[in-house]
Amino acid sequence: MPKFDEMYTVLPFGGSDVRAHYKRYAEWLARQSDASMEARRLEAEMIFRRVGITFAVYGTKDSGAAGNERLIPFDLVPRIISAQEWARMERGLVQRVTALNRFLHDVYHEQDILRAGIVPADLVLKNAQYRPEMAGVEVPRGVYAHIAGIDIVRAANAQGDGVFYVLEDNLRVPSGVSYMLENRKMMMRLFPDLFSMHAVAPVAHYPDLLLETLRESAPAGSADPCVVVLTPGMHNSAYFEHAFLAQQMGVELVEGQDLRVKDGFVYMGTTRGLQRVDVIYRRVDDDYLDPSVFRAGSTLGCAGLMEAYAAGNVALCNAVGTGVADDKSVYPYVPDMIRFYLGEEPVLENVPTWMCRKPEDLKYVLAHLPELVVKEVHGAGGYGMLIGPAASQSEIEQFRNALIANPALYIAQPTLSLSSCPTYVESGLAPRHIDLRPFVLSGSEVQMVSGGLTRVALAEGSLVVNSSQGGGTKDTWVLQEEGSE
Questions:
Q1: Which residues pair with 355 in a beta bridge?
Q2: Which stretches make up the Circularly permuted ATP-grasp type domain (predicted)?
């Protein structure tokens, strides 16, 4: 299977060369001593720990208990993307997120794509993430996924060229943007000379773009919208990010107990009394938002919230019910959504996918389990997944039995050899597999900062980059065209 390295290209007659957009960095790196780089790594770890940039790791995926707080390992070697590569990726991301928002509006209103048979109706209407409560509810600008985290991987084609694929769409409560921002601050602190040598596109304005997007989603008539960030609380694995983004945007961080609904409007308690809330950037799953509608007894949300939302008196970002569009069983149909709603061919390709709900696909998957990646359609965080080439025979047989019992709960994909990037590990500098999560904001327009969160699988040969599975992160540099601002 051909492999693709972000920094090095393999020469036809052996050896390797540095890719053009990495040359200046490679020359700089060659001048650095191991001791100097190790000192900077330790400095980064000390600062991250002091600032409290941690991630809660739970014992099991179903555990409700607070996990152990640990740092997400940060690597000093950036992942660099050329201006030309980014321009194409950005076009593809805008196209994809636009189509996904059109799909969400459609399935909760006219359902044209279901009637046309492009997407099977039962796949949507019987999906656990489809919320009948949202049928007919109008949301500002028709935007459901205001913040989308689209996972991108690169793999070599038969000619050895790197091709970008969308691995999955995260439209419910995508996380990780705080690490993108903190990684950049750390790199600028440790290596200011590198930023004077490279025209790296900035990312620090993301909180401003986020706040602008949230304010644009406010109900009509909100002249100066009040925005809050709703967190499940300090025991949530991404609590650092919730607090960080609230602080960066200059808005209140609230929990469900801080909110109440009165006369169809949402208010938060303050030292000066009740203040009306216009926009809630919620980091709480649908099931916990309103105990009077969804999961009774939930203390993470606010009773009456859905009534105020359906009346158009408060905006929720992301909208309730967006999960139906990022379900892995719906993912294979996104290219068809782009064609149906936009009349365009997809700029970014999907990873080829077998839908085990289809008998012919299931037959192929069962016959090739040792070669494939099998995923639960509702799985996340690297859980509920089989990586065939790295699995034991017992693990393969366990998945075989699960597939036969409930084929509709799984999809399968080829085992892509994700692109690698030089990474500091115990033995020194070595290639490790990476992915990329750009964060796409949809308000009056679709926009994003140039880059995203690069996640890296630190174990040799591993393809699992998730932080919950021991992955690390890198700063992502998008190089600007020479002479551009």
A1: 411
A2: 78-457
318: preceding bond cis by omega (within 30 degrees) = yes
Q: How many other CB atoms are there within 10 angstroms of residue 108's CB atom?
A: 24
DSSP string, 171-211: -SS---HHHHHHHHHHHHHH-HHHHHHS-BPP-TTHHHHHH
Going 94 to 100 to 105 to 106, the CA torsion angle's sign is positive
Closest residue by Cα to residue 267 from 302, 218, 237: 302
Instruction: Give the separation between CA 204 and CA 182, rounded to whole angstroms.
Output: 9
Burial class (CB in 10 A: 0-12, 13-18, 19+), 467: buried
Strands 162-170 and 227-230, how do they pair? unpaired
Pairing of strands 354-355, 410-414: antiparallel
Domains and CATH numbers, the chain: 8-219+314-351+416-478 (no CATH), 354-413 (3.30.1490.270)
Q: What are phi and psi of 158, to 5 degrees?
A: -60, -25
Token pair for 320: 């309730």
**Maximum CA pair distance of the chain?**
75
Which three-class secondary structure state does DSSP give residue 141?
helix
Q: Could you read off the pLDDT of 378-427 as tens digits, one per residue?
A: 766 556 788 888 889 999 999 999 999 999 999 999 988 899 999 998 88
Judge contact between 318 and 262, C-beta under 8 A. no
Q: Please write the tens of the pLDDT for every residue from 211-270.
A: 999 999 999 888 899 999 999 999 888 899 999 999 999 999 999 999 999 999 999 998
Residues paired with 411 in a beta bridge: 355, 375
Tokens of 248: 């960066």
Give residue for tokens 């492009």: 118
The alpha carbon of 173 is separated from its chain's Cα centroid by a whole number of angstroms, namely 8
Running DSSP on this structure, what letter comes out for residue 107? H
Phi/psi for 76 (5° steps) reads: -80, -20
**pLDDT 10s digits, 129-186:** 999 999 999 999 999 999 999 999 999 887 788 999 999 999 998 999 999 999 999 9
Three-state secondary-structure class, residue 80 = strand
- How far is it, in rounded angstroms, from Cα 485 to Cα 480? 8
Q: Please report the DSSP string for 292-340 in residue order.
A: TTSSTT-SSS-TTHHHHHHTTSSEEESPTTTHHHH-TTTGGGHHHHHHH
